[in-house]
Amino acid sequence: MKRTVVKLKKGDGLLVRREARPRRARRIGKGQLKAHALEVFSRLKHTHPDAHCELDHETPLQLLVATILSAQCTDKRVNMVTPLLFRTFPTAAALANAPKDKLEEMIKSTGFFRNKTKSLIGLGKALVERHDGEVPDSMDALVKLPGVGRKTANVILGNAFRKNEGVVVDTHVGRLSARLGLSKQTDPVKIEEDLMLLF
Question: Which long-range contacts (CB under 8 A, 24 or more apart) does 162-168 make?
């Protein structure tokens, strides 16, 4: 077993700890994997008892809009944009009829604003036409909406409807799943499948 050499470097009056090389995932036998996963979950729950969705929202529609905006953007930036957005377009019908240029200007700072504008207007129209303006509470219906994939659907189901039908796999969950030995997959859907078998 090799040890990771830790070097201490003095910079700007602070002592900075640096690892010489990245840590590798430890090897865990198949029989021990579920117990290991439950231990990881228990530790996370203990160290982060108040974990919650960082996107500010009051309704399922607001969470859905904020989650779409969060693609390639920080939650902090999205939370700066959404108060005015939610006041201006409070319903699916209002979103469906939003002037494209006005919506683009409002969400420009979130990046990929043209694609997101198209998704949000399409989302508003789909919700009005197929769901009476309400956000559906099933995976099948959610993933058929413009701009909504499994990750977004899992965020909505878990946070707005308290339904756990899957695992939200973003780049961080994917990276940590590999590092903790919970999944060897690189595809988010396959990582989600591996994690669902464990929890």
Answer: 163/137, 165/139, 166/139, 166/192, 166/196, 167/191, 167/192, 167/195, 167/196, 167/199
